[in-house]
Every structure is written in structure tokens, then in C-alpha cells.
Amino acid sequence: MQRIRREMFRYGQEDFDLDYLRWGFHDLQTQRNEAAAVLAMLGPAKPLKILDVACGLGTHAVEFARAGHTVSGVDLSATFLERARQKATDAGVNVRWIHSDALALDADAQFDAVVWIERSFFSLDAIRRLRRYLRPGGLLVLDERNPEHPRAMARGGDWRTWQEKDGRFLLERHEVDEQARRVDCWIEIDPSAGTITEKTSTSPQTTLQERIDLIRQAGLGAIELRTLSGEPFTGGVNDYWLWLLARRPQ
Description:
The chain is α/β, with parallel strands linked by helices. Helix content is 28%, strand content 36%. The strands form two sheets. The protein has a seven-stranded mixed beta sheet, sandwiched between helices. The chain has a five-stranded mixed beta sheet with strand order 1-10-9-8-7, with no helix packed on it. The relative contact order is 0.16.
């Protein structure tokens, strides 16, 4: 069989959007539950101006718009945005879709909330940019994983999984290299085409505390962790999914 190897970023690289759809990284009901949790944390005030960063297929943005908020969704993928537009049309809501790098918007102090779910990277420059988009007092919402949870601890090391789909075999290999970087590899075996396609991405790892420190360094405050349901997180190993919230000072 022909073996094809290439480096791939998890977001923004050529054809990643098609790989995202092919590999089934998205789950509609999970994303709706996430959106409902964000709306509950935002409270009853309406309408808020919300920016959905790396909005993907638009599920979160459409749910925010259903709740009466003024929503913008930004993504690098034209494929994702085409599907997001159709999703908004089907739901009968208006969302402003922006085809752009989310960190290159001309949108200083425009939003009451900036939501970034399922991010593929984290940096001080990125958080500083998102802070600029927030109005004074505005809320930044990020998803996190409880590092003490057994599932997070298992996935923090080396792990593998696979699935069969439409006659193809899809394998994932995730490792930490000698430089403590995360190496993610997706392998697609297509017997009918006689190909093995291997795509990898390498990214630095940061801990939850390091990310909190970077958020504080970026000039955001009132930092807190909450459970998926929006309750204050008090520690322990029971909750896997967490929210990381921070506000731009008034």
C-alpha cells in the first residue's frame, strides 16, 4: 500500500475541516449541552453581544442566537461556515458569520462575552487578543478538563484508539515526546484506494495552572473554575469537564 505522511495543524491547516468531519470529532448533543451551560452562566440579561471563536459548524452560535443574543461566529474554514449558515437558516436565527483568523479581527471592545470552546492551541498573545475584543466587564469563557480526573490523567500520557467507518480504518495515536510536547497522529487506512495516510501535529503542552497564570498576565481578572453545569468547582476528581471564566476589568 502507498504510505502518505504529512504534518498537519489541528486547526487552520489545509483540509483539516474535512478531516474534522471525516473523523467525527464533533457531537451535536454535546455541543448543545455546552451552549446551554454557557447561556446559564451568562444569566438572563438580553441581548448580549457574543463572539464564538473558532465557531466550527456553528452549533454553539446558533444556540446563543436562539436565546435572543446578538452573535458573531468566526472561523478559518469556509467549509464549516457554509454548514453553519445553513444551520442558522434552518433554525430561523441571524448570526454574523466571519471567515477570518479569529485573532485578526478589527473588533476592539465590542463584545459582552467571548466564547472559545474546543480550542486547539493556547498562548499569551491569543488571550491578549481576545481580551481586546471584550468590553470592560466582559466575560471570557473557555472549556477545560479537570487534571485530577482519571480520564484526563490517562489522556495526558500516551493513548491510542481506532474506528472503522465506510470501509476505512481510522486510527489515532497520541503521545508526549522527549521535549514534553504533545504529538497527535491520525492514520487513515483505505484498502480500496490502497493508501495509508498519516497526519501529525506537534504542540507545546501547558498545565491548567499555567493557563490561568497566562490569563492573569494578559490582564484579565475574576478568574474562576466551574463545573459543566455552571456550579463553582471546589476540587476533587468527580468532574471531568470544567469552564474557565475570566473578566476584563471595568
